[in-house]
Structure formats: structure tokens, C-alpha cells
Amino acid sequence: MTTFTPVEALLGGSLIGIAAVALMAVHGRVAGMTGILTGAILPKGDWDWRVAFLVGAIAAPGVITLLTGVALPLQADLPSWAIILGGLLVGIGVTFGGGCTSGHGVCGIARLSRRSTVATATFMAATLVTVFVIRHVLGGF
């Protein structure tokens, strides 16, 4: 069951948008997590901001918990093999799609990129089909 949280979604989306605009303004780079991670693993001269961005993304839930005293629920009601398989499939899709949902969906669509709009529509359609098949055809996990 998914819980509707419009305030949290608005705040989170706003922070993502601000981070994407700030990264473009300061470094002239798109905030695509896959590209940022790849550049941190295989550095080509701009390693420092990439690592700082990733550390911030990873540390943010801990900072929220420290500031509010409320721990964010970090759980997945799936078997480990399903999470690993999903991660591998996403990695393959990112490779063939030339980027991820953050790069295409947040930054590409904002720049009115036709390629990013098509990629994001494809991501969303694949997600819809996958969720439908897993929940309604296979009976869920």
C-alpha cells in the first residue's frame, strides 16, 4: 500500500529541483545520479563535487533524523534477490537509455529535450507495466 504524502513530496521535489539548478549554475552539469556516480568511480578531473553530491544524497536521511528526531523508514518488503535483480535491470536500462530518471526526467525535461521526454515516458511506461505484472499477474511478493 502506498501512502499519499503531498507535503513531503512537494518539499522533496523542490529540494531536488534546487539541487539540479544549483549544479547546472555552478558546474554546468546535469544532476543525473548515474553520470555523477560513474564520474566518481572513474574520475576525469571533476571528482570532488561528484563525491560531495553523492555523500550529501546518502547522508541526507541521517541529517533529517538528527534534526527532527524521527527516523525515516528505509525498508523494502521484497526478497534480496528481487532487489539485486531490479538493480541490475536498472543498470542495464540506464546504459541503453543513455542516462537515468534524474538526468532525463528532472533535468532533461526541464531543458525541453525531446530525447529526455521520450526516455522518461519509456521509463514510466515500463514501470507501470512492471508493477501491474508483479502485483496483478504474479500476485506480488
UniProtKB/TrEMBL annotation:
Main location: membrane
Keywords carried by this UniProt record: Cell inner membrane, Cell membrane, Membrane, Transmembrane, Transmembrane helix, Transport
InterPro entries the record matches: Sulf_transp_TsuA/YedE (IPR007272)
Membrane topology note: Multi-pass membrane protein
Compartments (UniProt record): Cell inner membrane
Keyword Ribonucleoprotein attributed: no
Domain of life: Bacteria
Keyword Oxidoreductase attributed: no
Transmembrane segments: 12-30, 51-72, 78-97, 118-138
Protein family membership: Belongs to the TsuA/YedE (TC 9.B.102) family.
The protein's name in its UniProt record: Membrane protein
Source organism: Devosia psychrophila
Record lineage: Bacteria, Pseudomonadati, Pseudomonadota, Alphaproteobacteria, Hyphomicrobiales
